[in-house]
Amino acid sequence: MRLNDTTDLALRVMIYAASMKDRRFTIDHLVAAYHAPRSTVMKVVNALTRGEFLTAQRGRSGGLGLARAAQEIGVGTIVRHMETDFDLVECMRSDGDCTITASCRLISPLAEARAAFLATLDNYTIADIAISPRDFGLAAS
């Protein structure tokens, strides 16, 4: 399996957010940390805010932060929120048109592998994958 680039960035945004603890940060901080296009970072942050993983506060003392404690935010939950397609092969798609779907023996192992992949991610929280602010070149708070 391969996660899409926005899911990859979403997980990295959440790692950054966890490293900040209770300090607010901005989209510009994320752009600088990951050298990602601002428009892509904005899209990812909006998705994470809509999913209630991040909070956004406007104004002079505003910024972004975790919506709840890092140990309460599951990696698998974020991946499910960000990924739009877990249909690994044509026969798993609703509009699939494979001629052997009715007798195919590949669907079940792939569905099992997908479930195992997500179950493994469900064993981890953002707190488990967080790193130090120093890893971002920031002073620890």
From TrEMBL:
Entry keywords, A to Z: DNA-binding
Superkingdom: Bacteria
A Pfam family matched in the record: Rrf2
Membrane-spanning parts: none
Keyword Repressor: no
Keyword DNA-binding annotated: yes
Protein name: BadM/Rrf2 family transcriptional regulator
